[in-house]
Amino acid sequence: MNSLPESGSDGQSSGDPSQKTTPMPRYGRVIWILAGEASGDVIGARLMQALHAQDPSLVFAGVGGGRMEALGLHSLFPMSDLAVMGLVEVVPRLRQLSQRLLEAVQDIELRKPDLVVTIDSPGFALRLLQKIERSGIKRVHYVAPQVWAWREKRVKEFPGLWDRLLCLLPFEPEWFAQRGLEGRFVGHPVLQSGVRNGDGQRFRLRHNIPAHAPVVILMPGSRRSEAPRLLPVFRKMLDILRVQYPDICPVIPVAPVIAPTIRQLIRKWPIQPHIVTDIHDKHDAFAAAQCALTKSGTSTLELAMGNVPMAVTYRVNPVTATIARRLIKVPHVAMVNLLAGREVVPELLQENCTPKKLAETVSKLLSDPQMVEKQRMAFADVLDMLSPPVGTPADAAAAEIMDLLNEPVSRSSRS
Are 70 and 45 in contact (CB under 8 A)? Predict the structure, then answer.
């Protein structure tokens, strides 16, 4: 798969927006694509493949992680620079984020792509779309901002930011339509994750895990601000669980970019978790697992695809939590629960994210077949809601993008 070389004489990003460079020669229509975190990198990679299948001459540039880079994208700067979450947590990174925004805008201005796609990461992506609003470049935002959950007033800022909004959840188009914005449902990328291809026995053999040892998946998050808050709680939880389950085997699946950070954080744990970075090994781990403890987000749908019983937990800065509680408008934070319209999986958030409460919940998941079966029955119903009308989610998203790309510029509507 082709991509444009980076701006700069040596083919690398100069990192200095004041340093003018000459746009590189163009061999096909250019799509500039941005992913700001691990889940966006996965979505972006599948989208690049689907777009390339529809038009092999397409050229890609922008920002992405390892999976997008493996398909030929030379990331303008490390995607990890954008992976931050929390109202308070973002403050120390504001200067760097502003610099990266400036670099992204400059790169788009120099390359003059035919279309820009931003994936999720609304804090950065929507600012970028706003900065290039007057450029005349067609813009797509993939993964609708979850303003239906909190900060609904932000909807007033959206008109003019994109030409097409691609939604992952079936209720989103109607929600946005009621507020004067068009959204198009393309299905959820989790359906293409390949989770169901996992082999639990293969995972146990590869990692020398006895057949009787309970495997517990721990997912502390892919952002720099998440794991340092959750992992210390997970460690104390394991100390409690080890009394009842002396052979308990924790597994932490993480993106390769954050694996060194995770290894550093767990280096002194008495029970050393297996760190899994390979996607196929991750799916094997899901197949081997008795249950999981995960932060909120897409990971709940991924675990549901793997039929892994779970509990959801999260902990942020107390100030962030106080502000968020005033703004959140939905009854649940776990996507599985939101789609089901009820609490399918336990949610242990903030002050309930304690070693004792987590241990009690995980112990119940390991010992209560009825609880496990109820979750698994609900997973099937939730996942049925996420399929696009035709094809795969990536194909549906690519079709929307190609449709817009092929429209004459004069017909490009501003939502």
Answer: yes
